[in-house]
Amino acid sequence: MTRTSVLEYEPTKIEAYDFRRAMEEASRCLLCEDAPCSKGCPAKTDPGKFIRSIRLKNVNGAAETIRENNILGASCALICPQEKLCEKECSRTGIDRPIQIGKLQQFAMEHERALDKTYLSKKDTYTGKRVACIGSGPASLACAADLAKEGVEVTIFEEHQKIGGMLRYTIPPFRLPDSVLDQDISQLEKLGVKFELNHRVTPAELKYLQQEYDQVFVGAGTWQPKKLPIPGADLPGVVLALDFLAQAKENHKEMAPLGDVVIIGGGDVGMDCAATSKLLGATSIYNVFLESLEGAPAVQSEKDFVFKLGISLISEFKPVEFIGNGKVEKVKFQHITNESTILLKCDTVILAVGQKMSEDTCSLKESEHIFIGGDMANGGNTAVQAIGEGRIAAAKIMESFK
Amino acid sequence: MKKDLSIEFLGVRCENPFFLSSSPVVNNAEQISKALDAGWGGIFYKTVGIKGMDECSPRFDTLTDGSQQWNGFKNMEQISEMSLEQNVEEIKKLKKKYPNKVIGVSIMGSTEEEWIKITEAVTAAGADMLELNFSCPQMTSHAMGSDVGQNPDLVRQYTKAVVDHTHLPVVAKMTPNITKMTVPAIAAAEGGAHGISAINTMKSIANIDLDNITGKPVVNGKSSISGYSGNAVKPIALRFITEMNQCEDLQTVQFSGIGGIETWQDALEFILLGCRNVQVTTSVMQYGYRIVEDMISGLSHFMDERGIDSLNELVGIATKNIIPAEELDRSFQIIPTINESKCVGCGRCYISCFDGSHQAIEWDYENRKPIILEDHCVGCHLCLNVCPVQDCITPGEVVFKDGRRNNRSGEDVVKQLAYV
């Protein structure tokens, strides 16, 4: 087994390029005309431009480009599935392998952090206008940033105690440390965006907000976990992925031992649960999913990571029954096409089979005075996709002010 | 593969033409032993003066493209830190241990008397040849180094003084900090020098330290102009060597080439332009003595491939192909062709052609492909130089300018491009 770079659940430092390594990587960039990588970014972070800045020793310029286009630039550098987006489009692939765009973005954002730089400033284009954003995930934050930069007074309503939505509560710290997310959020605070925390907006209050504010953006995410309609699903020991990840982030040092863990689901959340279980000391871990190994929706780098941690991935099996007396003890799986069955002994089962919108949000529709973005709008996609949607909503809102 | 790379330089047989130049890579006998064991044909021992030097710290700086590769290197070291007596002992030890290697010794005085004193001491110590350092650009005395090398009368005078007091072959080392190197080189030949070595380092300021607002290296808040070397100066060295080799008044002297040599190819370029000996420092400072292994091996393979048995056959054969700009054949244009299957669609050829040449490449934004507009193309080959993919853009059709074909085919022109 290859040693991996992350061997702690909560590492003190995420490995980053130093100046020399960043310059070496930037020197590999072909500096394309009409760069395809830039077209591959849903948030329009413009890697073609910021890599050219690094190549020309203008790291401030690089960080500024990232910040102007992506208020979650530091977080995206770490969590974006670049292999499916910007790096997939990279022309350098025609020669050997794509530029490590995420690592270069991380380098520029690390420069911003180390020097405590502020690149964004407020204009007064729409001074006097007020917008409420519901939810503080990537879509809302991106919408808020674009509005605040133009002088709009933005208030973000968040039902949880902390800002960041899924990024805060579900992405494990070895992928996204809180400090990096905080770095992004501090840029919003510098732009004067206000946060109302522990504030769940009810449908009734939403109507009120529509009267109080010039426009309302809703990026409330998909927080309702899907369950499996099979026997034993309510047994103690069967936990939902988002609850498990949130609990680990909140208080992993005091969690009961996980014992033998079975994870169900082959997406990025499933992989995060598998890696988290490993780094929190689970005795054995099996990650089982319906899809083929290559067809499982998690990005390849996540699958590679889990594999390097020594976690078994079992493809093309579906769970048919949770078995146990007072708590879950075994899970029975059946192959999706043939007669094979597997019986796995377990102490913990983590269900990572997707989320949906909560009931009070699923009836919301975009209208003249309500704008919607993020997982709510796209059914569940990447943070960078949500950022792109938040930015589009901000542009529409500003258009409505003209 | 190891061929016989031996060659005679100034009547001294050298097992190969690869020498270390007078510099920090040849300070003392112990250090030089490792170099000679590694395979260097000989050395020019670090310049011996009357007294040892007082050096500054730090004393080096590099120019890079951001990676670890040095494009250029600036140094502020002067001549040997040891006294004449100490160096004489080191040279004796070295010659005793390596009777078959060539121990050249670089020397420098500040008066005629000093030059003579050092010459006699080093000759007696057993050196195989002397190199007169008229070219170090960072001496703390203006009676020494490149200030002398820029003055043909002093060069002639000191060379004659040395030649009159030794039986050894004498090489005069030239400074590039001058417009015409032929002038001091002729003066050295008139003084009796048998060989000319070139180039020493270029006077430079490589970088400004933006924190201290001074040059690099920063020595207690200040810096000085000093010598620049490494691959960046190779083109300048090759130019000076060629001008001297083409100079009628220098036909009897032999040349030792110095300047940015890192590989066998760099060394061969100096040989093809007329050098019977080459000297190396900067790349050794970066990579160590071991680089000579690939110089020996690489040159051997080259000679094997070309069916050449003696290095003598290669010396100076490129010199005649360097001609004045007014004599170049300007009757045709070679239009490049783009191999579509190799093109990765970066568009760099388009950008450079539009912004830096003749707007002869169109960019197909939809398919991300360049299209050469032959009517606009002047055959400058900027595209070919900027393309990141090997052999993607190559020279194509030869188009003669109106009325200037002179019964030639395109192949007649292309043939001249090939190695003869």
From TrEMBL, chain A:
UniProt EC number: 1.3.1.1
First-level EC class: oxidoreductase
Native organism: Mesobacillus maritimus
Ranges for domain FAD/NAD(P)-binding: 130-361
Keywords: Oxidoreductase
Statement: the UniProt record of this protein carries the keyword Glycoprotein: no
InterPro entries in UniProt: DPD_II (IPR028261), FAD/NAD-bd_sf (IPR036188), FAD/NAD-binding_dom (IPR023753), Helical_ferredxn (IPR009051)
Protein name per its UniProtKB record: dihydrouracil dehydrogenase (NAD(+))
Description of how the protein assembles with itself and partners: Heterotetramer of 2 PreA and 2 PreT subunits.
Highest taxon listed in the record's lineage: Bacteria
Catalytic activity of the protein: 5,6-dihydrothymine + NAD(+) = thymine + NADH + H(+); 5,6-dihydrouracil + NAD(+) = uracil + NADH + H(+)
PANTHER family named among the record's database cross-references: DIHYDROPYRIMIDINE DEHYDROGENASE [NADP(+)] (PTHR43073:SF2)
Domain Dihydroprymidine dehydrogenase intervals: 16-114
Purpose: Involved in pyrimidine base degradation. Catalyzes physiologically the reduction of uracil to 5,6-dihydrouracil (DHU) by using NADH as a specific cosubstrate. It also catalyzes the reverse reaction and the reduction of thymine to 5,6-dihydrothymine (DHT).
From TrEMBL, chain B:
E.C. no: 1.3.1.1
Enzyme class: oxidoreductase
Reactions mediated catalytically: 5,6-dihydrothymine + NAD(+) = thymine + NADH + H(+); 5,6-dihydrouracil + NAD(+) = uracil + NADH + H(+)
Domain of life: Bacteria
InterPro entries to which the protein is assigned, alphabetical: 4Fe4S_Fe-S-bd (IPR017896), 4Fe4S_Fe_S_CS (IPR017900), Aldolase_TIM (IPR013785), Dihydroorotate_DH_cat (IPR005720)
PROSITE patterns: 4FE4S_FER_1, 4FE4S_FER_2
UniProt keywords, alphabetically: Iron, Iron-sulfur, Metal-binding, Oxidoreductase
Entry's Gene Ontology molecular function annotations: dihydropyrimidine dehydrogenase (NAD+) activity
Domain 4Fe-4S ferredoxin-type stretches: 334-366, 368-398
Annotated function: Involved in pyrimidine base degradation. Catalyzes physiologically the reduction of uracil to 5,6-dihydrouracil (DHU) by using NADH as a specific cosubstrate. It also catalyzes the reverse reaction and the reduction of thymine to 5,6-dihydrothymine (DHT).
Family label: Belongs to the dihydropyrimidine dehydrogenase family.
Known partners and oligomeric status: Heterotetramer of 2 PreA and 2 PreT subunits.
Protein name as catalogued: dihydrouracil dehydrogenase (NAD(+))
Taxonomy of the source species: Bacteria, Bacillati, Bacillota, Bacilli, Bacillales
Gene: preA
